[in-house]
């Protein structure tokens, strides 16, 4: 897996990804504590609103921004997005009202909607061989998982000597260092050529990726899988702080440990992903995740109804705490079985000309699912309790899993893959 780091361009891009992820991880912990400081037991509603705004920025802005930036070179786009993200993160320590969180998060995530698809579409250009690209995907997934483990651990350590507001400065540093690394990276010549060859029609550029998704069977299944993944992610990111602080009455540092457990579960799959994919293929691995996630969510739902918040620490909180960590581990593992191979499907369904649009469509459409799941986790959790919220997310995951199984039938032996790039896509790009 580490052999792909011999490629200098990928190594520098990967380093930029890691430092930005570490900064984002500190942001996740600090934002949860800021929301609890401002709203107390309604922190889930504040986080749910903030994350819904984040998803709205991703869904509404990613295709348009990518279409507008298609005529620009990748490097200034990536560096500019990092600088905007760092400026917005610098505002967070000074926030005193919930509405201020919403404004800053919207601007910060609009910049992320510019950075992430452009960054992801570069990797298959840098690593053309499928085996190298698969290893890079596993390494990238591992980076996300290590961030989910390292950032909470670093945050827990820093929280013993600093207030949580100081963690936002780590986010600023991560984005600035990411911009510096991208600036020093020699990007492939094809990236600049693709920018010059972008089509004149803004409408074609904005909708092309979605149209490719809708006419490709495996990508339609990926849409359903995106819904499966969105359910546990919302559960963990929105309500972990409520479970830890309000239900179990655990200290602040245990929030970091709970988030780390989710990361360890995901990392355990990412490490073995290349071998799993070679042996079983994309379909078996990804649909296994679609089966595990609803089961783990159902168990979390049952446990939640038993452990409703109490005015005083519960006597059984010591036994509930390892159960929470175990379920979060399973949810992280299930997510990784879906997320790690997903970019392989995107690569198969696109060529050099259409790849940025397909990756942007996945970025936008996958995050559209969170517009449903974040409010369910946050608003329903605050209004009706964590149990109904967990139950609703379980049903969402079950619906997504069923759709994924039905829309991705087994391919008969000898049949051609159904994700080959369509020649119509390149033709449209020349119109």
Automatic annotation (TrEMBL):
Entry keyword set: Cell membrane, Membrane, Transmembrane, Transmembrane helix
Domain of life: Bacteria
InterPro entries linked to this entry: MFS, MFS_trans_sf
Record keyword Cell membrane present: yes
GO molecular function: transmembrane transporter activity
Intracellular or extracellular location(s): Cell membrane
Membrane topology of this protein: Multi-pass membrane protein
Biased composition (Basic and acidic residues): 417-431
Gene3D superfamilies referenced in this protein's UniProt entry, alphabetically: MFS general substrate transporter like domains
Classification via Pfam families: MFS_1
Predominant localisation class: membrane
Transferase among keywords: no
UniProt xrefs under CDD domains: MFS_MefA_like (cd06173)
Lineage: Bacteria, Bacillati, Actinomycetota, Actinomycetes, Micrococcales
Annotated region described as Disordered, given as residue ranges: 410-431
Name recorded for this polypeptide: Predicted arabinose efflux permease, MFS family
Ranges annotated as spanning the membrane: 45-65, 167-187, 222-243, 255-273, 285-307, 327-346, 358-377, 389-408
């Amino acid at each position: 897996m580490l052999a792909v780091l011999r490629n200098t361009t990928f190594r520098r891009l990967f380093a930029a990804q890691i430092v930005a992820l570490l900064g984002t991880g500190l942001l996740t912990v600090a934002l949860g504590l800021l929301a609890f400081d401002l709203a107390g037991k309604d922190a889930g509603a504040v986080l749910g609103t903030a994350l819904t705004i984040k998803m709205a920025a991703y869904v509404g802005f990613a295709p348009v921004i990518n279409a507008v930036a298609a005529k620009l070179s990748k490097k200034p786009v990536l560096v500019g997005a990092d600088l905007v993200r760092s400026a917005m993160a610098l505002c967070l320590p000074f926030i005193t009202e919930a509405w201020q969180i919403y404004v800053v998060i919207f601007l910060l995530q609009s910049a992320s909607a510019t950075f992430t698809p452009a960054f992801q579409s570069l990797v298959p250009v840098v690593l053309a061989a499928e085996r190298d690209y698969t290893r890079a995907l596993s390494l990238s997934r591992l980076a996300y998982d290590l961030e989910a483990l390292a950032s909470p651990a670093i945050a827990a350590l820093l929280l013993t000597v600093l207030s949580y507001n100081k963690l936002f400065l780590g986010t600023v540093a991560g984005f600035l260092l990411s911009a510096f690394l991208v600036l020093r990276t020699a990007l492939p010549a094809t990236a600049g050529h693709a920018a010059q060859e972008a089509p004149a029609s803004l409408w074609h550029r904005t909708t092309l990726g979605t149209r490719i998704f809708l006419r490709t069977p495996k990508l339609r299944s990926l849409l359903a899988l995106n819904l499966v993944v969105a359910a546990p992610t919302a559960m963990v990111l929105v309500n972990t702080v409520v479970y830890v602080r309000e239900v179990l009455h655990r200290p602040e540092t245990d929030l970091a440990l709970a988030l780390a457990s989710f990361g360890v579960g995901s990392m355990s799959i990412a490490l073995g992903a290349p071998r799993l994919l070679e042996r079983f293929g994309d379909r078996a691995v990804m649909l296994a995740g679609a089966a595990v996630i609803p089961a783990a969510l159902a168990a979390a739902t049952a446990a939640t109804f038993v452990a409703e918040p109490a005015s005083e620490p519960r006597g059984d909180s010591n036994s509930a705490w390892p159960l929470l960590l175990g379920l979060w581990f399973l949810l992280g593992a299930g997510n990784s079985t879906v997320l790690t191979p997903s970019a392989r499907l995107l690569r198969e369904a696109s060529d050099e000309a259409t790849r940025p649009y397909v990756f942007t469509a996945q970025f936008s459409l996958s995050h559209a699912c969170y517009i449903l799941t974040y409010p369910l986790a946050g608003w329903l959790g605050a209004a009706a309790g964590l149990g109904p919220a967990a139950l609703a997310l379980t049903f969402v995951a079950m619906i997504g899993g069923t759709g994924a199984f039905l829309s991705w039938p087994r391919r008969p032996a000898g049949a051609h893959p159904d994700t080959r790039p369509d020649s119509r896509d390149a033709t449209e790009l020349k119109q």
